[in-house]
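On to my pick:
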Amino acid sequence: MAGDTEMSVNFFSQVYSWYRGSNVGRGRPLSNPIESFHKGQFRDEYEIWMRSRLYFQLWMYYQLQGHHPNFFPEVFAQLRKTPMRYSTDEKNPISGLENYLRFAMVCSDVAKEDLSEFFDFYGFFKPVKNHNTGDYHSNWFTTTQADIDKTLAHMRKYPKAHPGIIFIDERIERLPAIYPGAPKGAFRVATSPDATPADAKEVGDVGFVRHFTNDNEAQAYKTKISGNHITVDRQSGRGAVGFKVYDLKGKLKRVSNTFKFDIPADLVKAGYYMTIAHGNGKESIALDPNGVAKNFVSEDRLLTGISSVTVETDNNAATETYDLSGRKAEAQRGVVIENGKIVIK
C-alpha cells in the first residue's frame, strides 16, 4: 500500500522473529494506535511500526490461530490479479479504491468476513483531497465519501469478522521461548522498549493472542460507570479481549484493552453503548443506557448471560433506576438498579 514500501520486509521480519522463538513482535503497544484512532487520524498518520502491526495482527488471528491458515498467500495472489495503483502526479490524484481501500476489500474477500471495523480502527475510511502519502516517492490521493461508502458496502456483504481482532496481541502475557537451546523457564523477550510482555501498564490487560479460539471460556462481566469513568470488574467474568464504545448510530468511537478507561463527557451526553469482545468471537453488552445495542449486535454473536451494571450517582440526587443492561428505566417490578445498587421489586 502507499506509504508502506518496506512493509513486506517489516511484516516478514515480524513473522520470522516469531518463528525464531526468542522475541515477541516489534512495534509500540496498542495504546499507540488507540490514541491515533481516538484523534481521528488518517491511516498514514499512524506510526509506521503500528501500521506494520496491522499486517501482523491479521496474520496472528487468521494464520497463527488457524482461522484461515492461507490468508496472506491468498491476499497476495488476489492482489497480483488486480494490482494496487499509484499516482506520483499531484495534478492527477487517484482514489483510494485503487490502492489502500482495495487492500481492505481484498482482505474481506479472502476471509469472507466483514473487516470494516478493523480497517476503520486503522484510519482507512477518511475522505482526503489532494493528499500525499509520502514514502520513497509521492502518492497522491483524492478519496471521496462515495468511494468509502462503496468500499464499506463491498465489505459488509460478508458476516462480521471477530469483534476483537483490533486487540489481538502476543505481549499481554509472557510466552515461553522456543529457540534451540533456550534455557528452561525462559520467555520471549520484548522487541520494543515500551512494550514489555505481561507489563499491563505498557501493553494492557486483555487481548492475548492465545485467547482467540472458538472454545475459549466466556462469561459476562460486571461493569461500573461513574460519570465518564468505566470500570470492568476483571474477576467477575471470563474471556474478554477488548472493550468498545459506540455512538447511537453504531459507529465505533472508543476502544480500550484495559479494565479501567474513560470516555469523553460529550459522548456520555449524546448517548452511547458499550460491548465487550470475547476471545471466542462472542460479544456481551456491558452498558446500554439508550437501549440501542440490540440494533447492532446480532443475536447469534451475543453472549448469553446477564451483565451486571452499577451506575454511581450523587447521594443527594433523586433516585435513578436502570435495568440490568444499563438502560434508564421508569418505575418497574423485577430486578433493577437504583442508585448503583441491585434491587428486587
Summary: Confidence is low (pLDDT under 50) at residues 316-321, 334-345. The chain is about 25% helix and 15% strand. Residues 48-64 form the longest helix (17 residues).
